[in-house]
């Protein structure tokens, strides 16, 4: 699953006085937020502010949040994962991007809220609107800094400078008015040790790696607030956040960690003493702020390293002259992305288990269709989970699977629901983007299927996407190369047919952590926090093509960055990818006439390997074996059922208003 989301921040501010497209029709199904807004405005006045911004984030900038933290959902009715709410004393508005327009039209309380379709022409950005609203009132404006990213805070303040205003930090006003009988309980799931047989390195070994990085920056201490970094550093896992084995926590790590042991802050009710990592002082989560206050003020602490993703609340406490600037990635993010040998082995091994589940699932779908038993999108996901649960060390899905039939496959961020699930049939595309959390890895695999006879255009698009997957997989590049330099490879075959797509090609993948992790990616846009690809990094390879109202294609393999040769000219180390996903491509969707011999050869070799690995593991499942064999049979270049060769000129015009800029969620979340 791609993680690229449209930027909800626009850096250049221009005061366009355009027509706001804020049409949103009030319907009886929408939540009535009148009372909530009345209460919230009362709290705003009490806090001395006239404008308040509410984000969808928790204190840790998490990609997924637990129900307890869905403040923005509760005050607006809108449940999409991306959106910012701004409430003034006279009005209220919600910004979301094109992935969520229709969901917002359905769920947002349109009687009380304006729907700002971010990216549409004449729709002001949150910053422009903030400035315009702030000009109308003498009140000041504020956000709750624990939920505000430092990037958002400084961009907003830059915009507000023009009118001589500034954001004020305020308490969590939504938390104050959310009745405890309406608010979901905060997760209290136990925190458990992540066994070294999966983690590969002890907490002490990891501390040595982290503090070696801290020394490079001349830092005395670092403050860690990202939940995946803490889980990795201390070899602990939890279950506070959906799809992620994380627990709410902070950490303070001193460079001199032998003398000044690291401090870990977790809810003590969630952890047994036997789980405490050796050489680490464990404190209650709520005491983090006073410890931070003490630490940053201590005269022996000279330089403090904080990641650019930390909340503004953390930055506000740190004396400016102690802060290491410019803010950059956390050192743990970089170290963690470069997996150790045990983690690497886990990442490869569990792909085979996930592939077994996927083949059993495909076999099942084919069996149902052949027996005319109707199946739908959500039922399909349930069945996949049934097969995944049979695999050893499986824990839970790594994200909400995208299971999309027919034209729904063109909705990049589609989320099927039982009540509206589409049937999967023999005459339509079926796209399945799903991933797993195993104790020894995280996976993310997309296959686009067709169980009957596809249209020529579907085959053509599928083949172009596949050529992109192969071109990325085949890349060889010197150390120091950024993923953005490879992005074109994944698109160049699509371009020949005038096809494009609006998301990045790859995101980093964690090890029994987040399915999306930095600081690596493959995407064309410049991102100041991107770091060059290195040996041991795992990343997705997932080009796509989407024809709205018709069909969508995406193929996603996970790949491992490995060492290639050393240059004989300048001794430079070269890198390449190893594809670690072993699920066959959809033979019926491959248009052989478009392929070069080299590409055909690569597909045949891949399929031979897939068959060799999976056949013995599927021997007691005939449907799965059939599905495997029919897909992995050698493809001959002459055995082509002729398709009309279309001109190489652009012949599809996608009139999409939403060809949007994408950015990594963890940089702006
Ligand atoms: C407003 O946005 C909706 C949905 O994106 C669109 O259908 C409508 O045409 C737009 N109206 C104007 C006036 O731009
Ligand atoms: C929403 O709730 C308020 C307060 O209870 C009420 O006055 C108002 O009529 C309701 N609005 C709708 C559309 O039902
Ligand atoms: C701590 O251990 C006890 C006994 O093994 C167990 O009953 C309890 O659930 C554990 N608590 C947590 C938070 O793991
Ligand atoms: C930890 O902090 C929470 C919240 O402040 C509090 O309810 C709890 O009693 C504390 N636990 C301990 C063991 O101090
Ligand atoms: C930090 O310490 C200062 C001075 O003692 C105090 O005013 C402030 O409230 C403290 N902040 C936190 C978050 O504990
Ligand atoms: C931190 O240092 C500043 C400046 O010396 C002082 O004003 C503040 O009270 C101190 N805070 C704490 C918690 O000691
Ligand atoms: C400051 O830090 C040093 C070493 O980290 C510690 O020994 C000392 O007690 C701290 N001082 C205060 C006032 O916390
Ligand atoms: C999809 O299948 C599930 C499971 O059988 C069922 O509960 C649901 O009602 C179906 N959805 C539709 C729209 O038929």
TrEMBL record:
The keyword Zinc does not apply. Keywords: Hydrolase, Manganese, Metal-binding, Signal. Residues 346-561 form the Peptidase M24 domain. Residues 1-18 form the signal peptide. GO terms for cellular component: cytoplasm. Its cofactor is Mn(2+). Residues 573-635 form the Peptidase M24 C-terminal domain. Pfam families: Creatinase_N, Creatinase_N_2, Peptidase_M24, Peptidase_M24_C. Residues 38-117 form the Creatinase N-terminal domain. One of its GO terms (molecular function) is aminopeptidase activity. Belongs to the peptidase M24B family. This is Uncharacterized protein. It comes from Rotaria sordida.
């Amino acid at each position: 699953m791609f993680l690229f989301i449209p930027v909800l921040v626009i850096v250049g501010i221009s005061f366009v006085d355009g027509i706001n497209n804020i049409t949103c029709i009030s319907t009886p199904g929408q939540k009535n937020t009148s009372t909530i807004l009345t209460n919230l405005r009362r709290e705003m006045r009490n806090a001395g502010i006239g404008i308040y911004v509410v984000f969808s984030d928790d204190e840790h900038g998490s990609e997924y949040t637990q129900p307890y933290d869905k403040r923005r959902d509760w005050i607006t009715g809108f449940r999409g994962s991306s959106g910012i709410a701004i409430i003034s004393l006279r009005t209220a508005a919600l910004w979301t991007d094109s992935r969520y327009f229709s969901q917002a039209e359905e769920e947002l309380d349109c009687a009380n809220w304006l729907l700002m379709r971010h990216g549409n022409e004449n729709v002001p950005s949150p910053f422009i609107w903030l400035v315009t609203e702030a000009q109308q009132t003498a009140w000041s404006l504020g956000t709750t800094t624990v939920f505000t990213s430092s990037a958002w805070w400084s961009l907003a303040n830059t915009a507000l400078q023009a009118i001589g205003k500034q954001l004020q930090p305020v308490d969590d006003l939504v938390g104050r008015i959310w009745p405890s009988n309406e608010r979901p309980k905060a997760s209290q799931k136990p925190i458990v040790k992540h066994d070294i047989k999966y983690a590969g390195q002890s907490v002490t070994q990891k501390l040595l790696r982290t503090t070696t990085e801290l020394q490079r920056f001349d830092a005395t201490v670092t403050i860690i607030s990202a939940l995946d970094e803490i889980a990795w550093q201390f070899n602990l896992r939890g279950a506070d956040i959906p799809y992620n084995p994380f627990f709410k926590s902070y950490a303070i790590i001193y460079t001199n960690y032998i003398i000044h042991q690291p401090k870990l802050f977790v809810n003590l009710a969630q952890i047994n003493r036997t789980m405490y990592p050796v050489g680490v002082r464990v404190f209650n989560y709520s005491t983090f702020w006073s410890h931070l206050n003490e630490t940053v003020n201590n005269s022996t602490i000279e330089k403090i390293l904080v990641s650019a993703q930390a909340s503004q609340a953390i930055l506000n406490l740190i004396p400016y002259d102690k802060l290491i600037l410019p803010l950059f990635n956390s050192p743990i993010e970089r170290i963690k992305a470069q997996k150790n040998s045990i983690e690497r082995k886990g990442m490869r091994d569990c792909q085979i288990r996930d592939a077994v589940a996927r083949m059993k699932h495909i076999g099942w779908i084919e069996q149902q269709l052949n027996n005319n038993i109707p199946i739908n999108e959500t039922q399909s996901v349930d069945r996949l989970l049934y097969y995944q649960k049979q695999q050893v060390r499986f824990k839970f899905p790594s994200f909400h699977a995208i299971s999309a039939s027919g034209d729904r496959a063109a909705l990049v961020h589609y989320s099927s629901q039982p009540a509206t699930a589409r049937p999967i049939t023999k005459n339509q595309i079926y796209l399945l983007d799903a991933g797993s959390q195993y104790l020894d890895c995280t996976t993310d695999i997309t296959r686009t299927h067709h169980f009957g006879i596809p249209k020529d255009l579907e085959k053509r698009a599928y083949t172009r996407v596949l050529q992109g997957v192969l071109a990325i997989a085949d890349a060889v590049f010197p150390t120091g190369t950024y993923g953005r330099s490879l992005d074109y490879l994944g698109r160049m075959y699509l371009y020949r047919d005038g096809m494009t797509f609006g998301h990045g090609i790859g995101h980093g993948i964690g090890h029994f952590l987040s399915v999306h992790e930095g600081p690596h990616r493959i995407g064309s846009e410049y991102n100041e926090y991107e770091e060059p690809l290195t040996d041991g990094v795992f990343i997705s390879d997932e080009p796509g093509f989407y024809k709205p109202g018709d069909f969508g294609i995406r193929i996603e393999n996970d790949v491992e960055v490995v060492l290639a040769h050393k240059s004989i000219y300048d001794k430079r180390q070269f890198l390449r990818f190893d594809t670690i996903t072993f699920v066959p491509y959809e033979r019926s969707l491959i248009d052989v006439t478009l392929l070069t011999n080299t590409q055909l050869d690569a597909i045949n070799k891949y399929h031979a390997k897939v068959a060799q690995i999976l056949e013995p593991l599927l021997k007691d499942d005939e449907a799965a074996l059939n599905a495997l064999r029919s897909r992995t049979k050698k493809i001959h270049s002459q055995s082509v059922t002729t398709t009309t060769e279309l001109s190489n000129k652009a012949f599809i015009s996608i009139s999409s208003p939403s060809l949007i800029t994408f950015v990594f969620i963890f940089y702006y979340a």
